[in-house]
Write a structure and sequence with these properties.
The complex is a heterodimer of chains A (278) and B (267). Chain A has 2 domains: 42 residues; 213 residues, MetI-like fold (Orthogonal Bundle). Chain A contains 13 helices and no strands. Chain B contains 12 helices and no strands. Classes of the chains: A mainly alpha (278), B mainly alpha (267). At the A-B interface, helix 1, helix 2, helix 3, helix 4 and helix 5 of A face helix 1, helix 3, helix 4, helix 5 and helix 7 of B.
């Protein structure tokens, strides 16, 4: 679409204020923006203010952020580590599975896809209780970081599978593979040289979604974690309950710095994968 | 290796993982719910005992309020952003979708910054206005969580609506109110039901937000948590989890059959 002429654009903008309905819509939109943005900005500001109660006039400082680093660096590293491990496991399980589901579309595949998507609907708390009751007595497993990893994989796997599946379902996989097979390519070669490169946009979107969700996961993790294994969001809940407001805010700021670029990359990659899938 | 065995091999890791960590744990959860002293009656207790039925009613009411508020706000803002091009539009859109990545705990904290003892509202208004830890605070937290999710679904549907229909209605003399009722809302209805179901299910199961805000309010996720950790009432915690899980699962099934979107619940 060609760019509108500035004069025309200006006229459109003036029209916004002429109609009462539009003015009402604009007010609602701006109020919603304020509701979402103001507390976020307050949290950022509180994290770098010397004394939040006295206000910004008390000066700005990085003291609290450094404090957070001293107190919670472990939890930040654990979250990053879990996100990477979760990405690797969801790739190993999800990529071949998406291919299998795409090659065998049928009621059994639908059922399987529906089943692994349960963690999208069933609250994390319920899943965590289920995992705890079955594996809680295996103390070696219960107290290790892999127990939290299982929860994260459970929650993020459907996103990875669906993201890849959407891209695979949109292309003519069968014809491509038959072509390669007639040239003598083995199933493994076809998977490696045809399926994986073609699925790349879906893999990228799925990977960014998995990492973003894993870093922010709280509901399952709160139930599965042990006092020695705190992830970033678990640490956040901890700091909200027991730390002064400035430290809690500074910690939230650190989380924002980590999660916002990831979210933007995820939205970009998902939109791209969706365009390709259509 | 033949084609068929290769494809089956591809599905094996998924099958093993989902059996071991999804199917078996869920079966265990169900068994745990009926293995208590009361047996199957534990499900009856949910509607018989005042503590649980009150919790259920309150959770449903707060979730319903969240759903309708989120639908009203997001539909208005979504239609506005789809139909009007102006400077700053993309900024507004970014602001409205930013909270998608915020976990429920963080949203709870943001509500405390608004309505807590040191919160904004308490500072700028005379008197003592603290609402973060009340039902209102919980409602605002759920609303914060739902607005971006509903907005994205509604905007996707609004982009497919034909503006010519509204134009035609206006030419035929319909006032803006009638255009909304007779043209826009029916066109958006599938996505409104879908995103409403998502918002409702999310609010019903929201643990993170409730964990930070609902220290004195009984909503289902908090009751499940306290029954499990404090009262060691495993059977009741499991039964409530099963009921909650079945309800949210059915709601999201409806949502997906109507709009085909996948939005993460949780929070």
């Amino acid at each position: 679409m060609p760019e509108a002429y500035p004069a025309q654009r200006l006229q459109q903008e003036v029209n916004l204020f002429k109609s009462k309905t539009k003015l009402l819509q604009l007010t609602v939109t701006l109020t919603a923006c304020a509701f979402l943005l103001i507390p976020t900005l307050m949290s950022v500001l509180a994290g770098i203010t010397v004394n939040y109660f006295k206000g910004v006039s008390s000066g700005l400082t990085f003291k609290w952020v450094l404090n957070v680093w001293e107190l919670y660096a472990d939890s930040i590293f654990l979250s990053l580590w879990l996100a990477i491990a979760c990405l690797i496991v969801t790739l190993i399980i999800g990529l071949p599975a998406a291919y299998g589901l795409a090659r065998h579309p049928g009621w059994l595949s639908r059922l399987l896809e529906e089943f692994i998507s349960l963690p999208l609907a069933v609250p994390g708390l319920a899943l965590a209780l289920a995992l705890l009751q079955l594996y809680g007595t295996l103390s070696g497993f219960r107290t290790s970081w892999t127990f939290i990893l299982v929860g994260h994989v459970l929650y993020t796997l459907p996103f990875m599978v669906r993201s890849i599946l959407a891209v695979l379902a949109a292309m003519d996989l069968k014809t491509l593979e038959e072509g390669a097979a007639s040239l003598g390519a083995s199933p493994w070669q076809r998977f490696r040289d045809i399926v994986v490169p073609n699925a790349m946009p879906g893999i990228l979107a799925g990977a960014l979604t998995v990492v973003t969700l894993s870093i922010g996961e709280f509901n399952l993790t709160w139930m599965l974690h042990t006092p020695y294994l705190k992830t970033l969001p678990v640490g956040l809940a901890d700091s909200y309950a027991s730390m002064r407001l400035e430290i809690a805010s500074a910690y939230t700021l650190v989380f924002f710095v980590l999660i916002v670029p990831l979210l933007m990359a995820m939205q970009w990659a998902s939109a791209r994968a969706q365009r390709i899938a259509q | 290796m033949t084609n068929r065995t290769f494809v089956l091999t591809c599905l094996t890791p998924l099958l093993i993982f989902s059996l071991a960590f999804l199917a078996f744990p869920l079966i265990r959860l169900f068994l745990a719910s009926v293995e208590g002293d009361n047996g199957w009656a534990v499900y009856l207790d949910i509607i018989r005992k005042p503590r649980y039925i009150n919790t259920l009613v309150l959770t449903v009411l707060v979730s319903l309020a969240t759903t309708f508020a989120a639908l009203a706000v997001s539909t208005t803002a979504g239609m506005f952003l789809v139909r009007n091009k102006f400077r700053g539009r993309n900024t507004l859109l970014s602001i409205l979708t930013l909270p998608l990545a915020f976990p429920g705990v963080v949203i709870g904290f943001l509500i405390i910054l608004l309505g807590g003892r040191q919160g904004l509202v308490n500072q700028i208004t005379p008197g003592h206005v603290v609402f973060a830890y009340s039902v209102l605070g919980l409602f605002l937290g759920y609303l914060y969580f739902s607005i971006p999710r509903v907005l994205l679904t509604v905007m996707a549907a609004a982009e497919k609506l034909d503006p010519a229909l509204e134009e035609a209605a206006r030419t035929l003399g319909a006032n803006p109110f009638r255009v909304v009722i007779d043209v826009i809302l029916p066109g958006l209805m599938p996505s409104l039901i879908a995103s409403g179901a998502i918002a409702f299910a999310t609010a019903m199961g929201a643990f993170g937000t409730a964990f930070t805000l609902a220290t004195n309010i009984d909503v289902i996720p908090m009751v499940i948590y306290t029954e499990f950790t404090l009262s060691a009432n495993i059977a009741m915690a499991s039964a409530l989890s099963i009921v909650l899980g079945v309800v949210t699962w059915i709601l999201l099934l409806i949502a997906r059959s109507l709009s085909g979107t996948t939005v993460a619940a949780g929070g």
